[in-house]
Amino acid sequence: MEAPVDVPNATALVVDDDPASRRLLQVHLRALGVETRMAADGQQAHAAVQQDPPALMLLDLQMPRMGGMELLRTLRKEAADFPIIVITGHGSIETAVEAMKEGAYDFLPKPFDPQHFAIVVRKALERAQLVEANRLFRETLETRAPTILGESLAIRQAADLARRAAASTATVLLLGESGTGKEVFAHAIHHWSDRRDRPLVIVNCVALSENLLESELFGHEKGAFTGAHQMKKGKFELAHGGTVFLDEIGDMPASLQAKLLRVLQDHAFERVGGTKPIRADIRVIAATNRDLDTAVKEGKFREDLFYRLNVVRIILPPLRERMEDIPVLARHLVAKYAADTKKSLKGISPEALAALQTQTWPGNIRELANVIERAVVLCTDDHVEARDLLLKASQMPAAPPEPEQEKPGDFHARVKWYKEAILRAALRESGGNQTKAAELLGLQRTYLVKLLRLLNIRHSADAGN
């Protein structure tokens, strides 16, 4: 007995006007673990494809009403992308060649050898699976993020935890403010896992309405709702063997949270309007900028779903808490956008880097990337200069002018001077009130105190003197 094919939920449509031939093909397909549907002629088959496209079609050419060759031409005009194996009688090689020219994947002569039949069917289904995987790779390739960059302790600890989590099948929950690089980490975890050769499918849970998000995740059957003119596979089904990244999971509607919980528990779901369970081998990575612990306490997020998601929790630090990483991030972004705009820039000046490290970056790395991209576009020299950054001075308390005779010549010393100047100005402007100074700078008070201690700045209003 032939081993089952390694293509889950595979369905073949058998098109033959002879009931005995249909039953024989059904027996051989079921032996391979392939579900079957039947059609007695080309018209029935065309209607079945419109209702629910199969993974594979076995097509007899000699049939009443619409023959096999006519159906083959019709399907190819409609851009049907599933493989079609033609069943030919009496060893008609000429007919088989003609069918191959019309787009058939392969042919089987009657009577066929069971072992040869199994080989042809298996290869056809594997090809269909590969075509679908390649399509998903093309869709996600443009969104692939760069390697995790940074040498700060916080980012190195997060990256180490992500790499260890990637070696398992555990669900990962990425937490952090918007723009901290959660999608970058999702790509990295998928790349480090043994699923790297399968699709990474990304779904933004806040970008779609509740009904559209349900259809996007689970797929839908033809006629499930107004506008559902044909069956559609969902992201969970398409990502079989790979990873699904659910971004902004904290905004998922409550009605879908229960359905997602079942996917995580049983790896099974139904399409919208469907009743047949569909199984999918997927690994889930979720991300949010919301406080899920509080959301659970307030009843806004299911506690059981939270525990299913929160197997490995990775907290990504905001950029203001990893300022030492700005130089490596800025240099990477300058090189990236210079290549995109075909500019031959040599890099970014120390003055520009120092200026970048005086900002609070409420938009985190996404905001930094925006500033760098604009600077590269505006730059007229061979280096991005501070004037190209167009930073808003109003975002920060005014720092005292740097005395020219005391101007440090070393990059790190100059950055330290800027930090001290900004902190002293904030303390002076707030009358020494650390809470107000932290608000002026867009920092947490605990982080401000940490900076003051590191720079040996007195915690009072006269610190600005």
Quick description:
With 465 residues, the chain is of the alpha/beta class. 46% of the residues lie in helices and 13% in strands.
Q: Can you describe what's shown?
A:
The chain has 465 residues and is an alpha/beta fold. The chain has 4 domains: 129 residues, Rossmann fold (3-Layer(aba) Sandwich), CATH 3.40.50; 165 residues, P-loop containing nucleotide triphosphate hydrolases (Rossmann fold); 78 residues, Helicase, Ruva Protein, domain 3 (Orthogonal Bundle); 65 residues, Orthogonal Bundle (Arc Repressor Mutant, subunit A), CATH 1.10.10. 46% of the residues lie in helices and 13% in strands. The protein has 19 helices and 16 strands. Strands 2-1-3-4-5 form a 5-stranded parallel β-sheet, sandwiched between helices. Helix 4 links the parallel strand 4 and strand 5. The longest helix is centred in the first third of the chain and has 28 residues. The radius of gyration is 30 Å and the shape is elongated. The relative contact order is 0.07. The C terminus is likely disordered.
Give the helices and strands, then pairings:
Layout: E1 11-15, H1 19-31, E2 35-39, H2 42-51, E3 56-60, H3 68-77, E4 84-88, H4 93-101, E5 106-109, H5 114-141, H6 153-166, E6 172-175, H7 182-192, E7 200-204, H8 210-218, E8 219-220, E9 232-233, H9 235-238, E10 243-247, H10 254-266, E11 268-269, E12 278-279, E13 283-288, H11 292-297, H12 303-309, E14 312-315, H13 326-340, E15 347-348, H14 350-356, H15 364-378, E16 383-384, H16 386-389, H17 411-429, H18 434-441, H19 445-454
Helix pairs in contact: 2-3, 6-7, 10-12, 13-15, 14-17, 17-18, 18-19
